[in-house]
Amino acid sequence: MADVHNPATRSKNMKAIRNHGTVIEKNLSEVLSDLGLDFLAQVKEMPGKPDFVLNSYRKIIFTHGCFWHHHNCYLFKIPATRTDFWLKKISQNTKRDMLVNQKLVNDGWNILIIWECAIKGRLKLSRYELSARIEEWVLASNSSAEIDTKGIHIKDID
């Protein structure tokens, strides 16, 4: 399948994709505030530039786009054009994610990855479900975890 845009238009469209301040991050910021949690957003000084840092709990939250971080869900589709380029780029993202997560865990942080599919799309969690899972993890968990359309799961980062 050929790309429907010329290279200049495709490049312009890809550059317009935001890597911070997204709707997903704004929604999560509201959820964290509603829970009464103190947090810092977009901490550039930390490995991986976490989306949210909860210092008093030693917890970090990343929001991951299912495409960009290769989540095995219905939102991830292998591109039909420039497939090798995209698979290489996504592979580099996932390798970098693993290294960043390992560094943060070694520094004493617990990590929560919230996948895009849990927040938007036809299978998303309700705001109540998402809020309850985040609160459960922040207050009661001493492990890293991830939230997707099926709920919360312990994530082993060794």
Could you characterize what this model shows?
By secondary structure, the protein is of the alpha/beta class. The protein contains 5 helices and 6 strands. The longest helix has 24 residues, at 83-106. The model has no long low-confidence stretch (mean pLDDT 88).
Kindly, what is the distance between the CA atoms of the first and last residues, rounded to a whole number of angstroms? Answer: 40 Å
Helix proportion range: 25-40%
Total strand count, please?
Answer: 6
The residue ranges in which pLDDT falls below 50 over 5 or more consecutive positions are: none
Could you say which structural class the secondary elements and strand pairing correspond to? alpha/beta
Biggest sheet strand order reads 1-2-3-4-5-6
List the helices and strands and how they pair.
Blueprint: H1 7-15, H2 23-34, E1 40-41, E2 52-54, E3 59-64, H3 83-106, E4 110-115, H4 116-119, H5 127-140, E5 145-148, E6 151-154
Parallel strand pairs: 3-4, 4-5
Antiparallel strand pairs: 1-2, 2-3, 5-6
What can be said about this structure in brief?
The protein is α/β, with parallel strands linked by helices. The chain has helices at 7-15, 23-34, 83-106, 116-119, 127-140; strands at 40-41, 52-54, 59-64, 110-115, 145-148, 151-154. Strand 3 (59-64), helix 3 and strand 4 (110-115) form a beta-alpha-beta unit.
